Amino acid sequence: MPSNTTASSMPPVADANETALRARAFQVGLTLCIINTIIGAGQPVITRWGAVHLDPLLFCTGAVVVATACTIPLLLFTGELKLIVDQRYRRRLFMVAMAGTVMTSLTLTYGLTRIGAVAGVLLLQTEPVYSLILSTIFVGERPSARQMIATATILVGIGSVFAGGGSLSPLWASAIIFTTPLFWQASHVMGLKLMPPLTPTSMTGGRFLYASIVLTAMLLIFRRDSIVQLADPTTLGVIVVTGFFVYFLSGLTWYGAINRLSLAWTTALVIPGIPILSILFAVIFLGERATTREVVGILISVSGVLALVLGADPHRKLPASEAAEAIHEPLI
């Protein structure tokens, strides 16, 4: 009798443990999302400043090198440095680096040489759209009707500003900023396939290490003369701040979040807060002013993003054998 009683009580206990683990994963993931949102709001502003005042390629390369320098000691401490050069992972980490850091740094920085930070923020609202498409195709997260309507709303918001002209001109600059979130999301989908066994720390380190190698080679080949700008303390300070916050800390918090939560839901939660804070930062630090059309377009897009949050399950879908490991995975 006692053994039967114990056996019959095990399923509820198991269910309770699983519920507790999922709740803990959600709490940690949500906290990381909030941190990532604050950092993400500053990215268009500080990138706009760097794109206008510095050589764009020097700015990209310097920031990524700083991020790599921040990550290497962390990887040494956790014993994960060997993983990012392991032959099982290095090719995929290189692809993540090319899409998520090299391409996004170049498209965003060069696009913001001609497009203001406020307009750039609006164009970056396409990220949930790309996230929904890619997570559906490659991760198996099926969109609901509400999510499809929300996606269309985001595009209407961007299109309403584009139809008015001016803010999103020249077209080539708007186009490359418009594609930046596609590269971000492509790298996130590839990164999800590596977590586990890789942790957010090793993902961040591998991504920045390989990106820094590629960007440094490009700088030395095409823009070697621009290196003299590093002698200016202001230039060096901006690059260090960008590398630490916008790249290193942002990378850690992002991978920590999507290691616990659904990719589409995480993206949709982070994106709404970014434009509001970004506009505030652009006004304070760059002296930019959002037009009425831009504000309306951003509000329409944000409403679509919020609908995506309400229409998706926040929990990351994992095979049962991987779920416990992913939930317990530490941030660093």
Task: Itemize the secondary structure elements and their pairings.
Blueprint: H1 2-53, H2 56-78, H3 90-111, H4 117-123, H5 127-139, H6 145-164, H7 171-192, H8 200-222, H9 233-258, H10 263-286, H11 292-310, H12 320-328
Helix pairs in contact: 1-3, 1-4, 1-9, 1-10, 2-3, 2-8, 2-9, 3-7, 3-8, 4-10, 4-11, 5-7, 5-10, 6-11, 8-9, 10-11
Give a description of the structure.
It is a single chain. This protein starts with a helix and ends with a helix. 78% of the residues lie in helices and 0% in strands. It has one domain. It has helices spanning 2-53, 56-78, 90-111, 117-123, 127-139, 145-164, 171-192, 200-222, 233-258, 263-286, 292-310, 320-328. It is globular and about 65 Å long. It is built from twelve helices and no strands. With 332 residues, it is mainly α. The longest helix is centred in the N-terminal third of the chain and has 52 residues, at 2-53.
User: pLDDT under 50 segments (min length 5)?
Assistant: 6-10, 318-332
Which series of helices and strands comes N to C?
HHHHHHHHHHHH
Total domain modules: 1
Q: How can the largest sheet be summarized?
A: none
Count up the helices: 12
End-to-end gap: 47 Å
Q: Strand fraction band?
A: under 5%
Nutshell version of this structure?
The protein is mostly helical.
Q: Which tags fit this structure?
A:
332 residues, mainly alpha, 78% helix, 0% strand, disordered C terminus
